[in-house]
Amino acid sequence: MGLSEPDAVVIGAGPNGLVAANLLADAGWDVLVLEAQPEPGGAVRSSDTLTKPGFTHDLFSAFYPLAAASPTLAGLGLEDFGLTWRRSPLVLAHPAPDGRCVALSTDLDETAASLDAFSPGSGDGDAWRALYGLWERIGDAMVDSLLSPFPPVGGTARLLGRLRPSEVLPVARLGLLPVRRLAAEWFKGEGGGLLLGGNALHADLSPESPGSGIFGWLLACLGQQHGFPVPEGGAGSLTDALVRRLVSKGGQVQCDTPVVGISVVGGRAVAVQTAAGDTVRARRAVLADVGAPVLFEHLLPHDAVPARTRDDLRRFEYDNGTVKVDWALDGDIPWTAEPARRAGTVHLADSLDHLTDAAAALAKKQVPANPFLLVGQMHVADPTRSPAGTGTAWAYTHVPFGTRFEPGQLDAFADAMEDVMERYAPGFRDRVLAGHVMGPADLESRNANLVGGALNGGTANLYQQLVFRPTPGLGTARTPVDGLYLASASAHPGGGVHGACGANAARAALSQGRPWRAVADRLR
């Protein structure tokens, strides 16, 4: 079985696990990654067997603005290992029922013009220029702060250094605003609220959630700066590059090898057990790219987990579940709004109130009657995904965590999602050659980390972020067990394909026994 006694065993070959493994291998460690699924990648995988031959679909995640902005992923030089990024002509479009459409572009003038056209005379284009101007001053420092180990001393210092003293409190306040309030303070028309609100709902944040404004602003600004890039050939190309790089450094990835337990001796993680009954010892560390509840409640011996940690984990909250439909198309989606035809990502909600209604239904544990759809037009960003003249697309929407569909209900819900598509793109169904639907249980069966179809490894609400992630007592990659590190999206900074959770775990492992190294990591 792979390395008989590696320096580190990484449980899970998702993007965080592979990033962690690469950084440890760079430091000269022998690394073995054990993955339960038949192939690596976690939520970064693609398939050419989902609908029709010749059509490549991303099984889970698809667009990667956080990957484009991540200093960790940039530092790995994945382009040297076969990764090529592709981008759509427009980043994002949010059409309205009356045919208007607000669009996000990497061209600032085009974004501003779109906001002005959506609400003539509002001056919303200049408002976006001002909001994005703030991002141009502090965005890179902000990303560094968000993706660094907690507390992010160095990134925060750089961020504060770019603000005038009189700006510090207003910017801090902006970070707490719900997206509805942020939109009301900055925009006179509806377009700005749609732009920010749709981006905020990429996570389980309602327009009224504290902090939803900064999330919507951050994602919109990342799109303005970097676009929403996709790996040429499918999401799996990003995973392939991570694996190739790791193997070139001497690391190994072993699939079809579920880990069912972690051995703890003298308060230290020393080995893992596989479902086949094998024991793999780890000389230095075990890094777990698995959800926090799975790690502490199932993989570790009961007596290795402090009672306080077990009690805190009972309060751990997953984000909402997901239903995803993939389509093979015989041409472009016939959107009524022209900008939507050029955008890789399309948001479908009639208004900010519609977003609030959908979020309120989720809060009440009800499946939204009129769901908000997040749509991906992969052929617009990357034409290599399907034969010439055809297309691949998907849409997903959230349902309450724990939703279980009875036989026939999932297909009926997928039909309702197609009804929404048809409203904004009459004739859409006529373009569909084949479709495939996955509900929460299907997503979890393909990736155990997507518990109940939750995509972010835990809620993105403020009460489970930063020092509170995954619990108030576990705010870093370190765990109460020596030599064991949490490397999944359940750890700070949470969901998204940025590799920071894995990188933070790797840095913590490398600094074990050297407190000065941990301090240096926080000053980066």
Description:
With 524 residues, the chain is of the alpha/beta class. It has three domains: 8-48 and 235-316 and 457-523, FAD/NAD(P)-binding domain (3-Layer(bba) Sandwich); 106-226, no CATH class; 318-451, Guanine Nucleotide Dissociation Inhibitor, domain 2 (2-Layer Sandwich). Helix content is 38%, strand content 17%. The protein has 20 helices and 19 strands. It has helices at 15-26, 65-69, 71-75, 108-118, 124-147, 153-161, 165-174, 179-186, 191-200, 212-226, 236-248, 292-299, 307-313, 352-363, 378-381, 409-424, 428-431, 440-446, 500-510, 515-523, and strands at 8-11, 31-34, 46-47, 57-58, 85-86, 90-95, 101-104, 230-231, 252-254, 259-265, 268-274, 279-281, 285-288, 321-329, 343-348, 373-377, 391-399, 432-438, 484-486. Strands 7-6-15-16-17-14-18 form a seven-stranded mixed sheet, with helices on both faces. Strands 9-2-1-13-19 form a five-stranded parallel sheet, covered by helices on one side. It has a three-stranded antiparallel sheet with strand order 10-11-12, with no helix packed on it. The longest helix is centred in the N-terminal third of the chain and has 24 residues, at 124-147. The chain starts with 7 loop residues before the first strand and ends with a helix.
